[in-house]
């Protein structure tokens, strides 16, 4: 019954496959799941996640996560508005929470729902390092990378080349959603972002952190610290979805001056390290 329903929705989907424009690259990307379906689901999943985990409030670290998050969000809004995408974030409901967990991880769901785990803080080290991680994660969300992963997951599941599926909130759809957004290591299946998505998120993330007033070169140092963790017996969760590499660090060094130049257009003249 369920398969039949999925297939009929799939056939319908073939007719309405949509594209959305990535505001940073101008590229058309395949968006098989519209925001109107994704965002309510993201908000629900986010609240569920918060209710099942230990949210840290009122500490200096929790406040730092909120502060840096707000600055990154405001940088995203300023950048998009300046580039002709003023309405792009209308449906975003930014939220920044620190969760008490040894897991080395951080993510941003579509709609601006961010979680930073306490386990990543020793590696981010300071405010600028945290801005590098949050800038990168927000960039994935803005560029709809999760959405594209979600679509890929669905296609895989349905064994089709194009399709759409109604997100009714049942277990199967939630599983696809969680896999696509790299939520919860307990699921065991976390897809890494593709190399092109990683490059895009690094590039956009540097611009965001620079506009937020942080020196983008800190990002190179952060990824070096990440890489140093990789040699341990169990690499951090964050690295299983965002593998570090010499190429990544080199790219960041090359792009840092360009990101600072971009930020100067927004009146940012000093960059916190
Ligand atoms: Zn990434």
From TrEMBL:
Q: Which cofactor does it need?
A: Zn(2+)
Q: Name one GO cellular component term.
A: membrane
Does the entry feature the keyword DNA-binding, yes or no?
no
Q: Please, which domain of life does this record's source organism belong to?
A: Bacteria
What does the entry's cofactor note say about binding and number?
Binds 1 zinc ion per subunit.
Which interval of the chain is the signal sequence? Answer: 1-20
Q: Which UniProt keywords apply?
A: Hydrolase, Metal-binding, Metalloprotease, Protease, Signal, Zinc
Report the protein name in the record. M48 family metallopeptidase
Family classification: Belongs to the peptidase M48 family.
Q: Which GO terms describe its molecular function?
A: metal ion binding; metalloendopeptidase activity
Q: Which residues form the Peptidase M48 domain?
A: 91-255
- BP GO annotations: proteolysis involved in protein catabolic process
Under the heading Pfam families, the entry gives:
Peptidase_M48
């Amino acid at each position: 019954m369920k398969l039949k329903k999925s297939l009929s929705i799939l056939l319908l989907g073939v007719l309405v496959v949509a594209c959305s424009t990535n505001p940073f690259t101008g590229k058309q990307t395949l968006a098989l799941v519209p925001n109107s379906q994704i965002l309510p689901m993201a908000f629900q999943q986010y609240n569920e996640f918060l209710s099942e985990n230990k949210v840290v409030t009122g500490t200096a670290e929790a406040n730092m996560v909120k502060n840096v998050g707000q600055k990154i969000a405001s940088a995203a809004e300023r950048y998009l508005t300046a580039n002709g995408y003023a309405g792009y974030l209308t449906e975003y409901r930014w939220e920044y929470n620190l969760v008490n967990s040894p897991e080395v991880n951080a993510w941003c769901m579509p709609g601006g729902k961010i979680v930073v785990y306490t386990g990543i803080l020793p590696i981010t080290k300071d405010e600028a390092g945290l801005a590098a991680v949050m800038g990168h994660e927000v960039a994935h969300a803005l560029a709809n990378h999760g959405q594209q992963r979600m679509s890929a997951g669905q296609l895989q599941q349905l064994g089709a080349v194009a399709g759409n599926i109604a997100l009714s909130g049942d277990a199967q759809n939630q599983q696809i959603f969680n896999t696509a957004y790299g939520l919860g290591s307990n699921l065991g299946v976390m897809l890494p972002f593709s190399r092109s998505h990683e490059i895009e998120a690094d590039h956009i993330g540097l611009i965001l952190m620079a506009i937020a007033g942080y020196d983008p070169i800190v990002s190179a140092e952060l990824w070096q610290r990440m890489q140093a963790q990789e040699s341990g017996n169990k690499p951090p969760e964050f690295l299983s979805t965002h593998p570090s590499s010499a190429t990544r660090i080199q790219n960041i060094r090359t792009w840092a001056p360009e990101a600072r130049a971009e930020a100067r257009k927004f009146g940012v003249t000093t960059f916190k390290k």
